[in-house]
Structure formats: C-alpha cells, structure tokens
Design a protein that fits this description.
The chain is mostly helical. The chain has one domain: Arc Repressor Mutant, subunit A, CATH 1.10.10.10. The longest helix is centred in the first third of the chain and has 15 residues. The protein binds a DNA duplex through helix 2, helix 3 and strand 2.
Length: about 120
DNA sequence: CACTTGACTTATT
DNA sequence: TAATAAGCCAAGT
C-alpha cells in the first residue's frame, strides 16, 4: 500500500469529510473544497486526494467535478461511465460530460455551511 | 537532485 | 470569447 506523510493523510480525511456532506442531487468543485479547507491547500491536492479515494465507496466522488461542471475524473472510476450514471441516478443531467445546470446545482461548502 | 505529471483554478493576452 | 501562462504541490521518474 502506498504510504503518505501524516499531514497528507490528515488532508485526505478532511477532503473525504467534506465530500460526504454533499447533499444528494448536488455537486461541488475541487476548488470549492480546497477553499473551504483553506490553509495552503490547492485544488490539485483535492483532485489528488480523490484519486486515492477509489477504495472508499462511502465517498460520493461522483459529486465532485471541476469548476466548469465537467466530469474530469470519470476515467478514474471503475468504468468511464460510472460517474455519469451515478449522477443521473440522483437526477443530475449530464450532457457532453458536463453537468447540466451546474451553476444551480453547485454546493459550495464555504457558502452552504455558512460557518 | 532536476524534471515531468496531474480528478485544478485564476489571470493574462 | 478562446487560447496561453502562471500558480499550485505532492509523487513519480
């Protein structure tokens, strides 16, 4: 198993916790999660964390897309279609690998959680 | 140790 | 509005 530094592992947990809070039928972006976690974390790190979450079925990774609503991570799922299928199963329409009405469905943790 | 890569985003041209 | 550059930061080579 790949080993990560303690700080990195902690960061992974933070990302997973936020992703688990995304309501069904909503989506968020890597950047939104990174901003919510703050403290020098970049969107790339969030994507990197998600890449390691494939073995964590309880993390709704399909609800995390890039800032344009594009399903950039679809190729990392069990099948390239799994991500879109899961989204559509929640009532989220996907067209040309992009979430329809993304702007309306966006769930920004730093705004929705309104700390 | 230097360079490339990547589930990203923002700024600049 | 679209293409490019720059910032990002850990891992892999």
């Amino acid at each position: 198993m790949t080993r990560y530094s303690d700080s990195t592992y902690h960061f992974f947990d933070q990302v997973y916790d936020v992703v688990r809070l995304i309501p069904e039928g909503r989506v968020t972006s890597y950047g939104a999660v990174a901003r919510y976690l703050g403290s020098g974390r970049s969107a790339r790190m969030v994507g990197w964390a998600m890449n390691a979450c494939t073995s964590k079925p309880d993390v709704p990774a399909h609800r995390v897309v890039n800032r344009n609503g594009m399903l950039t991570g679809k190729m990392h799922f069990t099948t390239p279609f799994a991500m879109q299928e899961r989204l559509e199963a929640e009532g989220i329409q996907v067209r040309e690998d992009v979430v329809v009405e993304f702007k309306r469905l966006l769930w920004d943790p730093s705004r929705e959680l309104e700390l």
